[in-house]
UniProtKB/TrEMBL annotation:
This is Aspartate/methionine/tyrosine aminotransferase. Keywords: Aminotransferase, Pyridoxal phosphate, Transferase. Coiled coil: none annotated. It comes from the Bacteria. It comes from Nonomuraea endophytica. The keyword Transferase applies.
Length: 381
């Protein structure tokens, strides 16, 4: 059987491996996967159920998404970005935010062109760059004062790229980009004539004291920015698998072609629920407060260990090598000795990422997280 070069450097998430090893043991702290026990908006659940009962959305059309959802996305983007997006020409609904990444890469890059990401970054972004036959170029995140910071000097040294992919808050590190960071991104995009692909999946999951800045509000970025959003994180609607792309009309026409010939159309039932989540109160602030409380519980429990605080998001990272052990071995020991399922970041970047193990706190309440120190102590060599 012939090899396929697109898959030569693609790595697995490792999430499923850790989850399978953990099994269904209720004693295990489930910190390997981005599920959440914070419920989705009840109004969205009701709207979805009603759509199922009445047959609304049970159609192949329209390929770019139901008008009610595209209009809700446009209204949400107007509030976030300060810009108006034409629901008919500048917004395409996709089967989740992650499913939007490949069509956007196909629309913005040629084979062999460079795409800039951070190290660490979400493995679903990094590996899709490889599958799109583009070349990832990783700019490191650095730990400064116990928090992650973008290495702006390293970004300024990039000499060529077709696109820059950024996420704020990011997965898996939880870095929140400052206005100075976004200005550096804008300068890089202008210098390189590159698009900014902005994964906004967690934009509002930001903790107290940290900025929440949409890049489209930064001078020079709006015209170059392609926004990828979804209802999975902010609205806790993981199983709906609804996302979207918004941006310049010429790029969105290409995105729509790629989406249509891949998935044809996202679930109509789920689109109706997503439209309600975007249009009505959906408990985002309350959910963020709960995630922040869980993050602080993790920080308290692991005080004195090489944990890097997150400024937002659903997870934070612990430096396995600082503990004198490899990330894969620490992940294995946490499960076998501490009953903690946690994913090594070996597929989530390069030199920086491979040092770390991710601790997801979105699916474990504070009461259970308060057992974390004892479990870690049992796991460390």
């Amino acid at each position: 059987m012939r090899n396929n070069s697109r898959f030569a450097h693609v790595q697995t998430f490792d999430i499923d491996r850790v989850a399978a090893a953990a099994g269904a043991d209720p004693d295990v702290l489930r910190m390997e996967n981005l599920d959440t026990d914070v419920p989705p908006p009840p109004n969205a659940v009701t709207a979805t159920a009603q759509a199922l009962a009445t047959g609304q959305g049970n159609s192949w059309l329209p390929f770019n998404g139901l008008p009610v959802l595209r209009e809700a996305i446009a209204a949400d983007l107007r509030e976030r970005t300060g810009h108006d997006y034409d629901p008919a020409r500048q917004i395409v609904v996709t089967s989740s935010g992650t499913a939007a990444v490949m069509p956007v890469l196909l629309a913005t890059t040629e084979p062999g062109q460079r795409v800039v990401l951070t190290d660490p970054t979400y493995a679903g972004l990094l590996q899709r760059v490889r599958l799109a036959d583009a070349r990832p170029y990783l700019v490191p995140l650095r730990v400064d004062g116990g928090m992650w910071r973008l290495d702006r000097d390293a970004l300024a040294q990039v000499t060529e790229a077709a696109a820059i992919i950024m996420m704020s808050p990011s997965m898996p590190a939880g870095v929140v980009l400052t206005h100075e960071d976004w200005t550096a991104v804008a300068e890089a995009c202008e210098r390189l004539d590159a698009y900014l692909i902005y994964d906004a999946a967690m934009e509002r999951i930001v903790f107290d004291g940290h900025p929440r800045i949409n890049p489209c509000r930064v001078d020079g970025l709006a015209a170059r920015t392609i926004v990828i959003g979804s209802v999975s994180k902010e609205y806790r609607m993981i199983g709906w698998r609804i996302g979207w792309v918004a941006g310049p009309a010429d790029i969105l026409s290409r995105v729509l072609t790629a989406v249509t010939y891949n998935t044809t159309v996202a679930s109509g039932f789920a689109q109706i629920g997503a439209a309600v989540a975007l249009s009505e109160p959906s408990g985002v602030a309350e959910a963020v407060a709960e995630y922040q409380a869980r993050h602080e519980a993790v920080v308290r429990q692991l005080d004195g260990l090489p944990l890097v605080r997150a400024a937002g998001g659903w997870a934070c990272l612990v430096d396995a090598e600082e503990l004198g052990i490899g990330a894969r071995e620490l992940s294995d020991r946490l499960l076998s000795h501490g009953r903690i399922a946690a994913t090594p970041m070996t597929a989530w970047g390069e030199e920086v990422a491979r040092r770390y193990v991710r601790l997801v706190y979105s699916n474990e309440p504070v009461k259970r997280l308060n057992e974390l120190r004892d479990r870690f102590t049992a796991a460390l060599p």
